[in-house]
Amino acid sequence: MSTTQVPYFVFRDYPAGINQQVEEALLGALRAQQYILGEAVEQFEGEFAKYVQAGMTIGVGNGYDALVVALKAAGIGAGDEVIVPANTFIATVNAVVWVGAIPVLAEPDRHTCNLTAAVAATHITPRTKAIIPVHLYGQACEMTGFLELAEQHHLVLIEDFAQAQGASYKGRPVGSFGRVSATSFYPTKNLGALGDGGAVVTSDPELAAYARMYRNYGQQQKYHNQIIGVNSRLDTLQAAVLRTKLHHLDALNSERQRLAQVYLTALQGIGDLVLPVTAPGCTHVYHIFNICTRQRDALQLYLSAQGIQTAIHYPVPVHLQEAYTWLGYSKGSFPVAEELAATSLSLPLFPGMTEAEQEAVITSIHTFFERHD
Ligand SMILES: *Cc1c(COP(=O)(O)O)cnc(C)c1O
User: Fold this and answer.
1) Which InterPro entries does the record associate with it (predicted)?
2) Ligand 1: which atom is nearest the Cα of residue 67?
3) What whole-number distance in Å separates Cα of residue 193 and Cα of residue 63?
């Protein structure tokens, strides 16, 4: 029995002093008494756009709404087909359905767990209007192929970079490749708020104007409505927090990468363990450190008994979710996504994780496989 309890995720004061800075930012925003939109939201939008190297950011209520607003802005609607990876978080697919479009699922690459342009290409029909590559677990998708495919077939490329803020492909930040892209500031994301938050990113002024209207009841000017929008504004207090945390995003990601490197070195060649693989030209910011083993359930139980918490992303692939039986897929439709769902385990990894905590995880995994070989 290991004596060190290891949470799957916990907020620590990393880099040192960040917690106080966040508290001060929050207090400042509170005292400014601007609670909806206003300066803090505009400042954050400008800074985030610059960080992502995209023209404009439109802050919205959460990552799901960001996807809906991006799809709406891109003109995706009834009857349109949108290609999405079969192993994504459900929000990506729900957003497609919400705008009236049809999600067309596609197999991820077995090694990177990301969708590739080559696989997406096999699903293109005359009704295909968009592709949503998801930078899963924090690894950038290989974007060159997607850009070419989108151009050839006149498709809208929409990135879901909820798990990958700060990742890049060939030196260019994710979020800047899509005609329009969506991200989430859910608290545990690499750039997390203290509640819900999300953003749409685009360099197309027309799409940006639409998104800006749509998130705020469809009005460009108060009480003058051009379109039927919704209420999904980035909360002003959250924007103040996000501004502060954005300054530290690169340092937070570097710490995640350092921790990942420790795992990658210490867990090599154990049993049937498959470690995360990063494709050439891509960076990985390890939102999730995902390993695969056929003994996943036994390993998870064993680690839990040692006081080590883990998670599974995701236990049921989209096409086997009860909510999506109507899509008509069945078991066997996406063997890679199904295998990932059956074998994936996410290890604890968070900025501020101690050496002792990581050592406890590594030692326990070694012990488990020594006993189960
Ligand atoms: C978290 C996440 C979302 C949704 O974000 P919320 O802010 O929780 O709505 C969408 N897509 C992916 C890939 C995510 O990980």
Assistant:
1) DegT/StrS_aminotransferase, PyrdxlP-dep_Trfase, PyrdxlP-dep_Trfase_major, PyrdxlP-dep_Trfase_small
2) 10
3) 12
The greatest distance separating any two alpha carbons of the chain, rounded to the nearest whole angstrom, comes to: 69
Would you say the CB of residue 89 lies under 6 angstroms from ligand 1? yes
Query: Do 18-246 and 249-372 have matching folds?
Result: no
Three-state SS letters, the chain: CCCCCECCCCCCCCCCCHHHHHHHHHHHHHHHCCCECCHHHHHHHHHHHHHHCCCEEEEECCHHHHHHHHHHHCCCCCCCEEEEECCCCHHHHHHHHHCCCEEEEECCCCCCCCCCHHHHHCCCCCCEEEECCECHHHECCCHHHHHHHHHHHCCEEEEECCCCCCCEECCEECCCCCCEEEEECCCCCCCCCCCCCEEEEECCHHHHHHHHHHCECCEEECCEECCCCCECCCEHHHHHHHHHHHCCHHHHHHHHHHHHHHHHHHCCCCCCCECCCCCCCECECCCCEEEECCCHHHHHHHHHHCCECCECCCCCCHHHCHHHHHHCCCCCCCHHHHHHHHHEEEECCCCCCCHHHHHHHHHHHHHHHHHHC
The token pair at 41 is: 């939201």
Which residue ranges make up each domain of the chain?
18-246, 249-372
Two tokens, residue 234:
């980035």
Assess if CATH 3.40.50.980 describes domain 249-372: no
54: alpha, beta or left? (left if phi > 0; alpha if psi -120 to 50): beta
CATH fold group of domain 18-246? Aspartate Aminotransferase; domain 2 (3.40.640)
Q: State which amino acid sits at residue 149.
A: L
Q: How far is the CA of 89 from the centre of ligand 1 (A)?
A: 7
Average pLDDT over residues 41-46: 98
Q: Is residue 2 over pLDDT 60?
A: no
| 366 C-alpha to ligand 1 centroid (Å) | 33
Span 286-309, pLDDT tens digits: 999 999 999 999 999 999 999 999
Q: How many CB atoms lie within 10 A of CB 20?
A: 10
pLDDT tens-digit series, residues 123-146: 999 999 999 999 999 999 999 999
CA 86 to centroid of ligand 1, rounded, Å:
15
